[in-house]
Amino acid sequence: MKIIVQKFGGSSLGSIQRIRDAAAIVQKSVDEGFSVVVVASAMGNSTDDLLLLSSSFDAKKSKREMDLLLSTGEQVSTSLLAMALNSIDVPATAFTGWQAGILTDNQYGSAEIKCVDTYALMKCLKQKRVAVVCGYQGVSESCAITTLGRGGSDTTAVAIAAHLKAERCDIFTDVDGIYSCDPRMCDRSVKYEQVNYTEMLNFAKAGALVMAPSAMDIAREYNVELRVRSAYNPADQGTLIDGSSTGDFLGVACDSQQEIFAVHRADNLAELAIIQEFKNRAVELGMPLEVICRVGRKTAHKAYLAVSNRHVHDVIGLVNELAIELHLPMEHAKPLAKLSLVGDFYNAGDTVNKVFSSLIHHKIVPRFWNVEGQSRVSFWVKHDQLHLAADSLHQVFLKEKLQIPA
């Protein structure tokens, strides 16, 4: 049995016509002799619509019910896609996360997949039916519906591919592969034909939206071959992600939704330990924090934290609650945009200097910066400077790929 997993993102399922188009892609794979498992994200912006509905209440007191609510978005798209397949005589069965055997821990909102019981999916495939699975969700040991956080459908697809030992996992989205930067953010972005797991994992952790970090962790651990492809141009094979050693990847990840917090009196070991505890607790809540450096003058007795608002619906409220609980004086600074250069840098210090020079040359003054090993340097700039900043880094660091004259 030749098994492939095909995941369709929300934009790829945003209308009935888009669902029909996705069904046609699946049908072609079935006609080619593959046994297909499809993972569906929620249609369009339906998850955001559900979050808006829940904002009428204190969702923090109903975390279990919030996950139950958010899981319904994928149930709609999964059911419709299975119906579309059955309508064109491609036998299909729809599965919720728990019906598909996605078993998770008990962390509502950012659950981790512990294992996948493939019995139901294999039974479906042996009956020569397409299995259409709700992404983004699973079930805990206490039989509660859980969600996997933003990008959770990627994680679902890769986990299923790993446990079914699938030949590959196709990620269908609204771009035709992995680019050096989001093409909607940077006109100079270039497409890669191939990247390796570590490069893509670092890119995802830096904020690139095309793949979820948790999905890349699983892909690297189980050696799952991935292809990021366009649902609008399925003939294009997109970008291959595998365990090869490419070594020449450079990417610019952008996150326009960064919140900055100043922590007061972080001037002794006890208080620094509280900040570390704060970071650990935030990560457990699916809200990874970075301790960042102020550019220019240093403010005595202050540490600065940055967190993406993309991963948590009300990150400001959550941060304030944690700060009060840990007796950590904190103030909310003005939101900024984060720009990260990702690659394999021989000398991170030289890279930081080159980035500073490039940004200053374009009259962009970063407010904060941070270095993550030899693979990532990040800067925080004003929102209206993000596009120009991404372009400037492409001119400096991807000159050869862009064939820009010296």
What is this structure's SSE topology?
Blueprint: E1 3-8, H1 16-31, E2 35-40, H2 46-54, H3 63-70, H4 72-87, E3 92-95, E4 102-104, E5 113-116, H5 119-126, E6 130-134, E7 137-139, E8 145-147, H6 152-164, E9 168-173, E10 178-179, E11 191-192, E12 194-196, H7 197-206, H8 213-222, E13 226-230, E14 239-242, E15 251-264, H9 269-284, E16 289-294, E17 302-308, H10 315-325, E18 330-332, E19 336-342, H11 348-361, E20 368-372, E21 376-381, H12 386-397, H13 399-402
Parallel strand pairs: 1-2, 1-9, 2-6, 3-6, 9-13, 12-14
Antiparallel strand pairs: 4-5, 7-8, 10-11, 13-14, 15-17, 15-18, 15-19, 16-17, 16-20, 19-21, 20-21
Report the end-to-end length measured between terminal Cα atoms: 53 Å
- The helix fraction, in percent, is 25-40%
Beta strands, count:
21
Sheet with the most strands: spatial strand order: 3-6-2-1-9-13-14-12
Major sheet attributes: 8 strands, mixed
- Fraction in beta strands: 25-35%
Describe, in plain words, how this protein is organized in 3D.
The chain has 406 residues and is α/β, with parallel strands linked by helices. The chain is built from 13 helices and 21 strands. The strands form five sheets. The chain has an eight-stranded mixed β-sheet with strand order 3-6-2-1-9-13-14-12, sandwiched between helices. The protein has a six-stranded antiparallel beta barrel with strand order 15-17-16-20-21-19, surrounded by four helices. Strands 4-5 form a two-stranded antiparallel sheet. Strand 20 (368-372) and strand 21 form a beta hairpin. Helix 1 (16-31) packs across helix 4 and helix 7 runs antiparallel to helix 8 (213-222). The termini are far apart.
